[in-house]
Amino acid sequence: MDGGVHHDITVGTKRGSDELFSSISNGPYIMSTTANGNDSKKFKGDVRGSGVPSRVIHIRRLPSDITEAEVISLGLPFGDVTNLLMLKAKNQAFLEMNSEEAAQNMVGYYSTVMPIIRHHPVYVQFSNHKELKTDNSPNQERAQAALRALSTSHVDTAVAAPSTVLRVVVENLVYPVTLDALCQIFSKFGTVLRIIVFTKNSQFQALLQYPDGASAQAAKLSLDGQNIYNGCCTLRISFSKLTSLNVKYNNEKSRDFTRPDLPSGDSQPTMEHPAMATAFTPGIISAAPYAGTTHAFPPAFAIQPAVSSPYPGLTVPALPGALASFSLPGATRLGFPPIPAGHCVLLVSNLHPERVTPHCLFILFGVYGDVMRVKILFNKKENALVQMSDSTQAQLAMSHLNGQRLHEKPLRITLSKHTSVQLPREGHEDQGLTKDYSNSPLHRFKKPGSKNYSNIFPPSATLHLSNIPPSVVEDDLKMLFSSSGAMVKAFKFFQKDHKMALIQMGSVEEAIESLIEFHNHDLGENHHLRVSFSKSSI
56-150 in CATH: which number? Predict the structure, then answer.
């Protein structure tokens, strides 16, 4: 278990290395001495963040008016801070922790949740130095005074706020919200130490602990009443009567970021809604655990080229400007989803020009959202525009379908610069290459809170069938699905409900084509077959 934790920590740190060191010149350099109260001796800076653990932490890109107390407070949740060296002219600082373990926990945590000080992202890495040797300059005396004032015995958070623990209720829960989503929203205002999510009185709630009351106060002031998504998932925040949270397991229901060694509990953590994990850009949310770890720490966000996803082989493209989204927009939403509002048109390329139709794209993309319009380009029939009903759905479709094979060719999906798909002018028919589906009865997500939201899975060889009439038996469905030339490997009716079944095709590609062909197939008795991808196999 322990080895896995450290693997995560180093992955988290190394991953961002290109970004982390882009501002540093090659070759060792000397921290220059300046008159603004910096250390008078010359201090050899770390040229490249060492991946080797050390008690000394190197912190970069600090705001120029940073205070000693703010730097120390970055380390306090993880253990006692034993020394501090401020290099204000370089916007850097070195922090020495009381143990290597505390330092590892700190670097591991900040590789998953980037610390923000006054709206500025700050970079945290191990130093090449094993300990800090400091002198008695006035600047150093100030640092020592701050250390004494803030040592754990003196922390008094009660003055700033009634509690360091917030109770969060999410109202109007149209889209699922994960523990990781909340962590990354609330970490804008301070270090989230511990978090627990649960459902009470049929409401999704969370308890969340900061190291200090000021962070809790700031988060409550800024976020209370905000919507996570446009028009829904509203945050209602109050101070909890609890003074601390006791977390026993690190999984999708609870997390103690100061204790990466905690077990995940008996059951394998299952993400409540794995599809949402891939639905966000780095910079705001990446809720995806590393493949193979049991306590799912999200990967470092905002400093990596692509978000890993819970599904092997599936990556979410990193959208540009991820860091820009750190400052909250003035509107009453949190800047989600990451595709700019109104950008819900996808450009799909590498299609098979003889075989693709608007209908087949409508059905396939309709698994991940409501498709409004489809246009196959007249001059380049291997390209199409697909307009989803909102940008979250566009992101879901893009992250699940990019690279999947349709008609023997891997789909390439990017965000289109168009904000909508134009219909041809009356009398200018384009051979049926543009279709308007805005009033289609086949939309899966029309109803707010529809259970289809919680059944979104990546393409898989096993399909979930529903709305099967009583007269249709196993052989009927096997024959139907093999009628197109595909191979049916296995079939199973649900024990409790014969209206539903699982059918396993020869490959993911065959399953995709079968879903397109047989979703909404008329089985008689006024029953149209519903087909979606399954997370289970037979």
Answer: 3.30.70.330
For residue 160, give Cα distances in angstroms to 82, 146, 164, 183.
25, 18, 9, 22
d(CA 184, CA 115): 10
CA dist 215 and 161 (Å) reads 9
What are the backbone dihedrals phi and psi of residue 242, each rounded to the nearest 5 degrees, phi first?
Answer: -70, 145
Inform me whether the pLDDT recorded for 335 exceeds 80. Answer: no
- The secondary structure of 7-70 as a DSSP string is HHHHHHHHHTHHHHTTTS-SS--EEPP-TTT--SS-EEPPSS--SS--SEEEEES--TT--HHH
pLDDT-derived band at 24, boundaries 50, 70, 90: very low
Q: What is the pLDDT of residues 227-251, one digit of tens each?
A: 887 777 889 999 999 988 999 998 8
Regarding pTM above 0.70, the answer is: no
- Burial of 124 from C-beta contacts in 10 A (0-12 / 13-18 / 19+): buried
Distance between alpha carbon 147 and the CA centroid of its chain, in Å?
Answer: 35
Per residue in 190-209, pLDDT (tens digit) is 888 999 999 888 889 999 99
Write the CB contacts of 98 (distance below 8 Å, at least 6 apart in sequence). 55, 79, 80, 81, 82
Q: For the domain bounded by 457-533, which CATH number is listed?
A: 3.30.70.330
* CATH architecture label of 345-436: 2-Layer Sandwich (3.30)
Type and span of the H or E element at 126: strand 123-126
Q: What is the dihedral of CA 86, 17, 78, 58, to 10 degrees?
A: -20
For 307, the token pair is 């978000």
Name residue, tokens 């080229």: 305
- Class of 165-256 per CATH? alpha beta
Q: From CA 85, how far away is CA 62, in angstroms rounded?
A: 13
Domain ranges of the chain: 56-150, 165-256, 345-436, 457-533
- CA angle centred on 330, ends 327 and 331, rounded to 5°: 120
Distance CA 343, CA 418 (A): 8
**Comparing 269-283, 302-316, 329-343, which segment has the lowest mean pLDDT?**
302-316
By the 8 A CB rule, do 60 and 91 touch? Answer: yes
On the CB side of 210, CA atoms within 13 Å amount to: 29
* Exposure string over 444-454, b if 16+ CB within 10 A, otherwise e: bbeeeeeeebe
Tell me whether the CATH fold assigned to 56-150 matches the one assigned to 345-436.
yes
* Residue with tokens 């087949």, as numbered in its chain: 360
Rounded to 5 degrees, what are φ and ψ at 449?
75, 15
The DSSP line for 182-249 is HHHHHGGGS---EEEEEEETTEEEEEEE-SSHHHHHHHHHHHTT-EEETTEEEEEEEE-S-S------
CA angle 289, 337, 234 (to 5 degrees): 95
What stretch of H or E contains 412? Answer: strand 412-415
CA dist., res. 538 & res. 489, Å (int): 9
Q: Within the chain, what is the greatest distance between any pair of CA atoms?
A: 88
